[in-house]
Each structure stands twice: as structure tokens, then as C-alpha cells.
Amino acid sequence: MITGLLASYGTIAVAGFGIASRVESFSQIVLIALSASIGPFVGQNWGAKKYLRVHQALRLSFLFCLL
User: Fold this and answer.
1) Is 11 exposed, middle or buried, given 0-12, 13-18 or 19+ CB atoms closer than 10 A?
2) Cβ proximity of 58 and 38 under 8 Å
3) Which is the most buried residue in 10, 17, 39, 43, by most CB within 10 A?
4) Are 31 and 65 within 8 A, CB to CB?
5) Per-residue pLDDT tens for 21-37?
């Protein structure tokens, strides 16, 4: 539907939308991988009572996702 709406603006607009959606998908893969790996890391360090390390890891992951 969106591609159909963009088609009225020409092929360059459709191509730009295609490139942008692929870049967005790639950036989401990185964030999903980080969210999948932070859980076990936090659990392991929380169990070892290394709370400062958990705090630092969460803070860094939040900043990375924000950027």
C-alpha cells in the first residue's frame, strides 16, 4: 500500500523507500541480538552478586540502543 502511494512520486522514491526499509531492518537485527544476549549476561552476573557489572552492562546497552 505504501509502495503504491510512493509510486505516484516516481521510481526514485520507490527505490529510496526500498533502501531505507532494508537499512532499518538491518539495524533492528543488531538491537534484537543485543536484547537476546543481555538477559543471560545479567542473570549470570546477578547470580554471582556482581551488581555493579549488571548496572554497567544495562547502562551501556541502553545507550547503544538509544544511539
Assistant:
1) exposed
2) yes
3) 17
4) yes
5) 999 999 899 999 999 99
